[in-house]
Each structure stands twice: as structure tokens, then as C-alpha cells.
Amino acid sequence: MTRARQRDEPSPRVFWAGVVLGGAVVGWGVFGLLESRDVSVTGVNLRPWLIWFLGAVIVHDAVVAPLVHLVGSGVRRLRPVALRTPLQIGLALTALLVLFSFPLLRGYGVGTQPGNASVQPVDYATSLLVLLGVTWTLAAGLAVYEALHAKGSGEGSNADNGG
After folding, report:
1. Distance between CA 51 and CA 65 in Å, rounded?
2. DSSP state of 44
3. For helices 65-76 and 84-106, what crossing angle results, to 10°?
4. Is 163 helix (H, G, I), strand (E, B) or coil?
């Protein structure tokens, strides 16, 4: 018995292509870890790396994924519908910007290169705030556009948009 595939569900081809591509990337990373000139299974203690890697997996599965699911579920129930996409985009970009700027905000690398003016030469906190301001300004502009488009197309602001 087969069931009809939902509109938002990826096709099996896309899923398996992702599995193959992801597996290749993981394999390349493991190969690079084990075959690097500076790293070898016999010459370097891989325990700290393994602890960090497993810790990252646990934190992702226990904290990050459930939090993203809760926020996504809340946004999915949002009315008016025109705010959904801009809010999803704004939240996703905010999370990525904060995640990628975290090491810069914490000052990692400065202690290992004292006197090197090229290590973190700018004010990253201000840069992050500017990028977040631009992100949310564009998200607000998209929300206004979506709201005006929904009214003009007769969908209404409380319609479910079929999703």
C-alpha cells in the first residue's frame, strides 16, 4: 500500500541524493582528519576532538533541534499568514549570523597571536548589530509586500495558503 506524497515532502530522489552527498562529505572529512600531515591515528591524541564532536552532536540533538522545532511550530501557527515567510527568513538568518559570529565576538584567536593587528581588526559586535538590523529591515519590507500581495490577490490575511 502506497500513500500519496504530501506537497511539502521531498521526493525520494532528493532524499537519497542528499544521503549520498552528505555521506561523501562526511567521508572526506574523516579521511582528512586521519590522513593529514599533522594528524595521524597513531601520533596524535584524537580524544579531545572526539569529545568535542560527540558533545556537539548531543547538544544539537538535545537542545538545538528541539528548540528549532518549537520555534518553527510556533511560526507555522502564526496569523496573518503573510508574516510567516518573512519571520522564518529573519529568524533563520539571525541564528546563522549569531552562530558564525560567535567565535569573533568571544575573541578566539587573539590570545594566540598577540600583537598581530590583522587578528580580529574590527568591532564585530557593531558589525553583527548592523547585519541584524539590515536582516530585520528586509524581513519587515517582505512582510509588508506579502501583506499587500495577499490583500490584492483575494487570499486574505488569515487564509492557510494551502500549507
Report:
1. 20
2. S
3. 150
4. coil
Q: What is the mean pLDDT of the chain?
A: 81
Helix crossing, 124-153 with 84-106: angle to 10°? 170
Phi/psi at 101 (nearest 5 deg)? -90, -10
Total length of the chain: 163
The candidate with the shortest Cα–Cα distance to 163, out of 69, 95, 82, 71, is 82
CB 41 within 8 A of CB 34: yes
| Interior angle at CA 148, CA 147 and CA 149, nearest 5 | 90
State pTM to two decimals: 0.62
Measured CA to CA, the distance from residue 50 to residue 74 in angstroms comes to 35
Residues whose CB is less than 8 angstroms from the CB of residue 147 and which lie 6 or more positions away in sequence, other chains included: 80, 82, 83, 157
Cell 597513531, residue located: 42
For residue 162, name the pLDDT band (cuts at 50, 70, 90).
very low
Output the nine-digit C-alpha cell for 32: 582528512
More confident residue, 142 or 117: 142
